[in-house]
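re: ur question from yesterday

yeah so i grabbed the chain u mentioned. its 97 aa long if i counted rite. heres the sequnce exactly as i have it in my notes:
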Amino acid sequence: MNKDARTIVRKVLITEKGTVLRETQNTYFFEVARDANKIEIKKAVESIFRVKVADVRTMQLRGKVKRQGRWVGKRNDWKKAIVTLGADQKIDLFEQI
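ran it thru and got these structure tokens back, copy pasting raw so excuse formatting
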């Protein structure tokens, strides 16, 4: 099955930990499709941002249970990808923030 790169990489995650890792270890965080594997994530990031990916790590995260008054709901489960780029690579999107 051939997936579009934009459906695999859903959005960029910007957190304090992500900012520190981006500056020190050239590592970026993304929210990705739950059914995407590491190879698909690597190809999608390389095609969207035109960089060379060195390593991809993933984790499945469970949605939080939230309540408002007496009503209880649950956020969706999601998948996070931690992408490490090559030594001289960077994504220019983050330099503008």
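noticed a couple things. The two ends are 35 Å apart (CA to CA). also DSSP finds three helices and six strands in the chain.
anyway ttyl
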